[in-house]
TrEMBL record, chain A:
Domain 4Fe-4S ferredoxin-type: 12-42, 101-130
Record's signal peptide: none
Keyword Methyltransferase applies: no
UniProt name for this protein: 4Fe-4S dicluster domain-containing protein
Record GO terms (molecular function): 4 iron, 4 sulfur cluster binding; metal ion binding
Flavoprotein keyword on record: no
Cross-referenced InterPro entries: 4Fe4S_Fe-S-bd (IPR017896), 4Fe4S_Fe_S_CS (IPR017900), ET_IronSulfur_Cluster-Binding (IPR050954)
Pfam families, per database record: Fer4_11 (PF13247), Fer4_2 (PF12797)
Domain of life, source organism: Bacteria
Organism, as annotated: Candidatus Desulfacyla euxinica
Keywords per UniProt: 4Fe-4S, Iron, Iron-sulfur, Metal-binding
Automatic annotation (TrEMBL), chain C:
Classification of source organism: Bacteria, Deltaproteobacteria, Candidatus Desulfacyla
Protein name per UniProt: Molybdopterin-dependent oxidoreductase
UniProt family annotation: Belongs to the prokaryotic molybdopterin-containing oxidoreductase family.
Keyword Magnesium in annotation: no
Source taxon at top rank: Bacteria
Length: 275, 242, 823
């Protein structure tokens, strides 16, 4: 059995620059609007609300006025190696597509056992406890036909906006092209980010910006050491942020210092002035 | 626990006043067996009638299209302006076209029809269907509520351009040949699922010798074709689901 | 033959066996599976032709370009436009969720309505437009016949200078009432400050993108200040993935670890309301070290050095003031910022090539303090960052035509002579043109409301005004309220009559110069979808209403419809010559420095220009290169004035009437008249006992929550953290040290009490909060709208006890004394 995506043609992935991220939440709204995500009256209850893309607020924990806050925008990581959700799915409702690297979720196939939700180390999966749209409000008028609305009792998650990949391919075919260009297929959050903090592309293609960015010493992944090989990367010049990317024991984390990258001269100085 | 002494006695008791049947137990009496078989077959036949005839009759309801559309007539490029092309498919595209973004228009909107049928007062032909079309739809600018034979559930994504243009598959391969049809077939609707019978296929059994792709439109059929055409990567879930 | 039990069983077995050989069980299993996958109540969105409609977002004065994705006639998503100069591709979360404001029917008025329930209950019955016009017009013409048109008042929340607001002002004049008030905005502070120091009337123009050092005093750059799409895009540019390429440093001055403060290169936290003192402390270091731009100071400024006026009196200058009173040590005492930090800020500011000091207070939907602005602007002047690329630019005003002069009738001219209820423009508030807090007070205190009929346009003062719930009590006294809001907001629920506007996606409207943008831009939003309900563009409503009132008022509006008025005003854009109606993302507008009137226009006739504006949604002139100094400053001295002569004159005028001491006191000034003409720091006067109210409450704004009159799209509540809002309770962020004093744990339920009232919240222990301050999120606590927004959290405005900013009279909403009591 093929265990990872090494032999696939494409491997879509994402790099999120935490230094650029302003924590505004536009990615979350763009994602919900793009993917017909349910909107419920009480969304403060984070165990019930559905946010394929979710901002996690983090802090350096220092005392005032040395406090800093920052954010981890967290889509589905589309793990490339044994995605934990895929291995546990009893209904084959979620699969890793070796050709694109996207972990799919088929709502009509899902039986709602929520095993995958428990298995996901990133909390990226959400269960539909209720049917979504209040019938009398007219809010179903903004639903897009590109993403199938979910019913009660199924699990859903970020799909890397694969409908956009389909759309990009369809457009390419209309223009007599077999292949899509870089930038033709990007996720809704990538496109929406007002600070251009998100870069999306094919990790298998060395020409794509993402392939260059992941070599950067400031780039890291969340819970990298559990070995699921996530395709969502983060980038920050601040050590305390990189340190929060995994559960390090005291002394286990080595700060990034004075490494060079891509022939460009620079040093990895701390990202912020200290007083 | 059975009492070993009592059980043979009991069994002979059950025989009552009937003559003993010798070596064979009574239930193996040939007459009774024959009777059993008879009723069994009766049940079998009954079930077959229910399963093969009653069930489909109950399951499906038949609906005529709102008006008849004569494909054969409209594809005659000598009679209809704007129908161009050598092959049947090219002619199909005159109305069932691709948009610039590659998406497929499907059944054309009224706007397309009124390119020719523009004046509700003066029909171009003499059929009653056209008359209804003119008075009921064109005059009121109302879209025709066509019943779509090949409509798939909402969770299905299908890119026509990928198949027709890039895969070089004729329209008829999946939809059957409509080009010479003078009359639209009845729309047969599955009462339970709400979808057209054409998805499952006309044969209630679902079995076909030398199955054609136009016979059925189930997921397995898509997958079979992908596999046959060496497009196995397109059997990934997110190729046909949204 | 008798059918025995045995026969029956045989037949059943036969049937069961037989049925397996029929398609029934297999087919029915399949069908049931499909049936369970397609419940009728799960919506199936219709598909069709996809298209993009370009328009401009009008949810805040930022005016970002939006592309609305449609399927046939349905709008399905809003995206940012890359072919719009303000925001290259990005919009803020509020703009992104805008479709819910269009399609959530329970947020909206679906047609003209008359109130049937109690005030505030939100029960209305639909009436026709004709009836609605008759009712308003009847009331107004009644007042005009009685000769008391001044009893009509209007609250207008449309940004200053937009065509709707021009029409509303005109309607008020034509009817004969001076009582046109606006909710406060940071632009009011900018306008006044620029008038006093520069004599210019153009909006504030910060050239952020070209700056290499942005020193932001309280401007919530990442909280939604200005055009959020623009600022956040700049933020992305400032933080290149490779720090070696990073050119711009950002310093945020703010008391809370907001997104801007945390994400900036440096965060300085002075006590709230002392930003001005900090700026003056920096000025002190710069002046003392002699590192200021002596050419600008000597050639283009006045009031820097001490001087003697014509009457022979000695006046101190800015230099003396700052050197005497604002040494780092003195400033440290006021602000709590260490002298070392002040020195390093000064060093950073002067050593940068093109630094800019930006003034703000959170987003732009609330006012700032005049003297704080002057202090910050003085810093720009010291460094010569005025009229310089990367600093503060002084472009010409946007050349929109004025509407023809209005001749008012006798009733109106008598009404217009009555004093404004809010006293704006009087000797006490000489430079203000609207003071809604005073307006509220007058009505609140009166036994019979001086306002008989209140018209409310694009505003929800009931909710948004930082006045401790004062406007609500004023509304209760006003006999007749007409709301033109498209949304069922708090103020509209108090109204007798609703003449609903269409939403921004259903109408044509203009955006005049987004806040803070460094070049003139006129944006035009257009209907993306046909109006869904029986609503009417307020521009058209005003015109039709004027005709319904009487002939004399109607004659002031000789236009067929609102669009015609837009064209009349846009005529000026064409006549001015120069200006672009399309945008190429490869040459950003801020990069394209041009002289004079800018590049050659892309159009030859007005019609061609108007067509271009309609399709592209914009007319703009790229950034102008530094302009000739001659005639640049329209101050009495013709120079940039560290010490404003207009203020000096105003004080003198007032002193001629009453004593100088009384004049200064009335204007809210606690220093000498010389100092009063310059940026200086004055401790706010709260007038409350600090032993009773030991803490201060500061409302804070978030980019992911609408804080103005627009409701937040329900989508946004997904982005709210559970320590900001949980169920029906919002959270007060306080420092763990402060919490420890009251023995409060995370999540504790407390009442925050101020002299103006109290609210119940939960406690969020936050290291990012300054000790001694209680931070309450702004935008929660609606009592109107639908289940998505109603009764969620509290509105801090309800407990704000606002003092008055000296001279300007604007509310000082950032200094409410409070105490915390456990519930």
């Amino acid at each position: 059995m093929k265990k990872s995506n090494d032999h696939g043609k494409y491997k879509y992935g994402m790099v999120i620059d935490i230094d650029k991220c302003t924590g505004c939440g536009t990615c979350m709204v763009a994602c919900a609007a793009e993917n017909n995500v349910a909107v419920r009256a009480d969304q403060s209850d984070k165990e019930r609300t559905i946010t394929w893309m979710r901002l996690y607020k983090i802090s350096n924990g220092k005392e005032f006025p040395h406090t800093e806050v920052s954010y981890f925008p967290r889509p589905c990581m589309h793990c490339d190696h044994h995605p934990p959700c895929v291995s546990v799915c009893v209904a084959t409702a979620t699969k890793l597509d070796f050709n694109t690297g996207i972990v799919s979720q088929i709502y009509t196939r899902c039986i709602g056992c929520r095993y995958c939700q428990a298995a996901c180390p990133y909390g990226a999966r959400y269960f539909n406890w209720w049917d979504v749209f209040p019938q009398d409000k007219g809010m179903d008028r903004y639903l897009t036909p590109e993403v199938s609305p979910r019913m009660r009792g199924v699990v859903e998650k970020c799909t890397f906006c694969h409908q956009r990949l389909m759309g990009a391919k369809t457009l390419a075919y209309a223009e007599d092209r077999q292949e899509i260009e870089e930038g033709e297929y990007v996720t809704a959050c990538t496109e929406a980010c007002p600070a251009q903090a998100i870069t999306f592309g094919d990790l298998n293609n060395p020409e794509h910006e993402v392939s260059k960015l992941i070599k950067h010493p400031f780039t890291f992944r969340l819970l990298e050491r559990i070995g699921t090989d996530p395709k969502v990367y983060y980038h920050s010049s601040r050590d305390w942020i990189r340190k929060l990317g995994d559960n390090f024991l005291p002394g286990e984390y080595t700060p990034v210092v004075n490494k060079t990258w891509a022939e460009e001269e620079w040093s990895t100085k701390p990202g912020r002035d200290e007083f | 626990m059975k009492d070993p002494e009592n059980s043979p006695k009991k069994s002979s008791d059950r025989g009552g006043d009937r003559p003993p049947s010798g070596f064979f137990p009574r239930w193996m009496n040939i007459n009774i067996l024959a009777q059993d078989v008879g009723f069994f077959i009766l049940g079998l036949i009954g079930a077959s009638i229910v399963g093969w005839i009653v069930f489909p009759a109950v399951l499906y309801s038949k609906h005529p299209q709102p008006i008849n559309f004569n494909h054969a007539l409209h594809l005659d490029s000598e009679r209809v302006d704007g129908i161009e092309g050598e092959t049947k498919d090219e002619k199909c595209f005159s109305c069932h076209s691709f948009r610039d973004d590659g998406t497929f228009t499907g059944i054309p909107k009224l706007e397309k029809c009124t390119e020719c049928h523009d004046d509700p007062e003066s029909p171009l032909g003499e059929t009653p269907a056209e008359k209804t079309f003119m008075t009921k739809y064109v005059a009121n600018e109302k879209e025709i509520p066509w019943l779509v034979y090949s409509k798939q559930p909402d969770c299905v994504y299908f890119s026509h351009i990928a198949h027709v243009k890039m895969g070089n598959i004729d329209c008829a391969t999946c939809h059957g040949d409509f080009a010479d049809n003078e009359k639209l077939p009845l729309y047969v609707k599955n009462r339970l699922t709400g979808y057209s019978r054409d998805i499952w296929g006309k044969r209630i059994s679902g079995f076909y010798w030398n199955k054609k792709f136009s016979d059925r439109m189930k997921m397995d059929d898509c997958a079979r074709c992908h596999t046959e055409k060496d497009q196995k990567q397109n059997n990934a879930c997110f190729v046909c689901h949204k | 033959m008798k059918l025995t039990r045995r026969n029956f069983i045989a037949a059943v077995i036969g049937g069961v066996a037989g049925i397996q050989a029929t398609p029934l069980p297999w087919k029915i299993t399949d069908d049931i599976a499909i049936w369970t996958q397609n419940w009728p109540w799960v919506p199936v969105p219709s598909t069709g032709e996809f298209s993009d409609v370009s328009s401009v977002c009008n949810l805040c004065p930022g005016g970002c370009g939006i592309a609305v994705k449609k399927v046939d006639e349905r709008a399905i998503k809003i995206e940012g436009r890359t072919d719009y100069p303000v925001n290259p591709g990005g919009v803020c979360p509020v703009g992104m969720g805008g479709l819910q404001l269009l399609y959530d029917e329970s947020l909206r008025f679906t047609g003209p309505m008359k109130r049937v329930g109690l005030r505030g209950a939100g029960q209305f019955t639909e009436i026709s437009w004709g009836e609605a016009f008759d009712m308003v017009a009847g009331r107004i013409s009644g007042l005009r016949k009685k000769g008391t048109p001044e009893a009509i008042a209007a609250v207008d929340g449309n940004p200053e200078g937009t065509t709707v607001s021009v029409l509303i002002k005109r309607l008020m004049r034509a009817m004969g009432s001076p009582n046109y008030v606006r909710p406060p905005s940071i632009n009011d502070t900018y306008r006044m400050g620029n008038l006093l120091m520069q004599g210019t009337l153009t909006p504030m123009a910060y050239d952020l993108e070209n700056s290499d050092y942005v020193l932001s005093f309280g401007a919530g750059l990442l909280e939604g200040w200005g055009a959020p799409g623009r600022v956040m895009n700049a933020w992305g540019m400032w933080h290149d993935g490779n720090p070696a390429k990073k050119k711009t440093r950002i310093v945020q001055v703010e008391s809370r670890a907001s997104n801007t403060a945390s994400k900036a290169d440096m965060w300085v936290a002075p006590r709230p309301g002392t930003d001005g003192a900090l700026a003056l402390g920096i000025a002190h270091v710069i002046i003392k070290s002699g590192q200021y731009d002596s050419r600008f100071v000597s050639d283009h400024s006045s009031g820097f050095e001490d001087g003697r006026s014509l009457d022979g009196v000695n006046h101190i200058g800015f230099k003396t003031l700052v050197l005497e009173k604002y040494s780092p040590e003195q400033v440290a005492k006021i602000t709590g910022v260490s002298p070392k930090t002040i020195v390093s800020l000064a060093k950073g500011f002067v050593s940068a090539k093109t630094p800019v000091a930006v003034y703000g207070k959170g987003k732009d939907s609330l006012n700032g303090s005049l003297y704080e602005f002057m202090a910050v602007q003085s810093l720009n002047a010291l460094k010569g960052s005025i009229n310089r690329s990367g600093g503060v630019l002084l472009p010409d005003p946007i050349p929109l035509s004025n509407l023809p002069l209005l001749e008012v009738d006798a009733v109106a001219s008598k009404g217009l002579k009555t004093p404004r209820l809010d006293q704006a423009g009087t000797m006490r508030y000489p430079f203000s043109d609207s003071l809604i807090n005073n307006f509220t007070e007058v009505i609140k205190k009166s036994s019979k409301s001086p306002v008989d009929t209140l018209l409310v346009f694009s505003a929800n003062p009931f909710f948004t005004l930082p006045d401790g719930g004062g406007f609500k009590r004023a509304l209760e006294k006003i006999p007749f309220i007409v709301s033109f809001s498209p949304y069922r907001d708090e103020t509209a629920n108090m109204a007798e009559l609703i003449l609903p506007d269409s939403t921004y996606l259903e109408k044509v409207d203009d955006i005049v110069w987004p806040t803070g943008l460094q070049y003139p831009l006129y944006g035009l939003s257009k209907p993306v979808v046909e109006p869904l309900y029986n609503t009417k563009n307020s521009g058209d409503t005003v015109i039709e209403l004027s005709r319904a009132i009487d002939e004399s008022v109607g004659s002031a509006f000789p236009w067929e419809n609102f669009e015609e008025v837009l064209q009349v005003r846009a005529k000026g854009l064409f006549d001015a010559g120069g200006g672009l109606v399309s945008y190429d993302p490869d040459t950003p507008a801020w990069q394209r420095q041009t002289a004079g009137n800018g590049p050659k226009p892309e159009y030859e006739s007005f019609d061609e220009m108007w067509e271009g504006i309609q399709s592209g949604g914009m007319w703009y002139r790229p950034v102008s290169s530094p302009r000739s100094w001659k005639g640049l400053f329209n101050t009495p001295s013709g120079k940039f004035e560290f010490s404003s002569k207009l203020i000096a004159q105003a004080i003198e005028n007032y002193s001629n009437k009453i004593s100088k001491k009384a004049a200064l006191k009335n204007m809210g000034i606690a220093v000498t008249d010389d100092e009063a003409c310059m940026a200086h720091y004055e401790a706010p006067k709260t007038g409350s006992d600090s032993s009773v109210y030991p803490l201060r409450m500061l409302p804070y704004e978030m980019i992911n929550l609408a804080s103005g009159w627009i409701p937040s799209p329900p989508f946004l509540y997904k982005t709210i953290f559970e320590n900001q809002l949980l169920k029906d309770k919002s959270f007060a962020a306080i420092n763990p040290k402060t919490a420890a004093r009251y023995n409060l744990k995370e999540g504790a339920l407390v009442a925050v009490k101020s002299p103006a009232g109290e609210v119940q919240v939960r406690i969020n222990l936050s290291e990012g909060a300054m000790p001694g301050i209680v931070y309450l999120p702004l935008g929660f606590g609606h009592t109107a709208y639908d289940e998505f927004l109603k009764d969620k959290g509290v509105n801090p405005n309800n407990i704000v006890q606002a003092g008055q900013d000296p001279i300007s009279g604007y509310p000082v909403w950032w200094d409410t004394p409070v105490k915390i009591v456990r519930v």
